[in-house]
Amino acid sequence: MPIQTKTLHIPTADGRADAFAAFPDAFPGGGRHPGALMYADGFGIRPVLREMAAELAGHGYYVLVPNFFYRHGPTPVFDLPAYIGGEDRSAVLDRLMPLLQEHTAERTLRDADAFLRFLTTRPEVAPGPVAVTGYCFGGLLATRTAAAHPGHVAALAAFHAPVGAAGPEALAEITAQVHFGHAEGDLTPEALRELNKALDAAGVDHTSEIYPGTVHGFTMSDTDAFDPAGLRRHWDRLLPLLKGALADG
Question: How far apart are the C-alpha atoms of 170 and 146, rounded to whole Å?
Fold first, then answer.
């Protein structure tokens, strides 16, 4: 399926966030596309994120990927190596950590309002609920977005993400269908049981599992954490979730 991409700018309470969108040229049977808001990992928008957005768009979705670090400048906020590993990874993380620490829950929620409003007013996007997905830090942003917009977000997926940092109160607000795919290196079986117990107590319709043999960042093919089997499992979980939650997906 041919895919279009567009560079966009999203008005927010704190300025303008650059973003890009990927969506099909044509939709089977005509009409518009279900919307999906995709939050990048902490390394931000780069070729691998564009590839993942295009892959998802190829399944019939309008995928919006915002630069959530826009307060520090447009993408790229700082230069990244083509391959993020070894000493390069450590250097990137040193530059990244202050940005992550400044990105508070309050900022996340202000931006989520703007990102969802922008997504749902695109002429290519079908009316109705949307999906939100994210990776690493972006998975936490996705979780907070779904919790803050329970009537608006029908599907939530987060991968190798610190979703528990959203807190039990936020998890209790989620009405979306949920999948959390955890890295084996991020979460112990005991911590997984506690998280899933909190989701059960909140009545969240969810699957939440550790992907065997993975480390943090396993979906990202431009990092030394990449795990091809983990990425395939990610698509095997994400696509049915979206199709089941979004009636037109």
Answer: 9
Residues 6+ apart with CB under 8 A from 235: 55
Q: Where are the alpha helices (DSSP H) in 62-188?
A: 86-102, 105-120, 137-148, 168-171
Assigned token pair, 111: 């931006």
Using alpha carbons only, give the angle 31, 19, 145 rounded to the nearest 5 degrees. 80
Pick from 102, 107, 124: nearest CA to 66 = 107
Residue with tokens 């309008």: 62
- Please give the DSSP secondary-structure letter assigned to residue 100: H
Q: Tell me which DSSP letter residue 163 carries.
A: G
Answer yes or no: are the C-beta atoms of 177 and 186 closer than 8 Å: no
24 residue type, one letter = P
Place of tokens 């997504």: 119
Say if residues 209 and 186 touch (Cβ distance below 8 Å). Answer: no
pLDDT tens-digit readout, 74-129: 999 989 999 999 999 999 999 999 999 999 999 999 999 999 999 999 999 999 99
Neighbours of 84 (CB within 10 A): 23
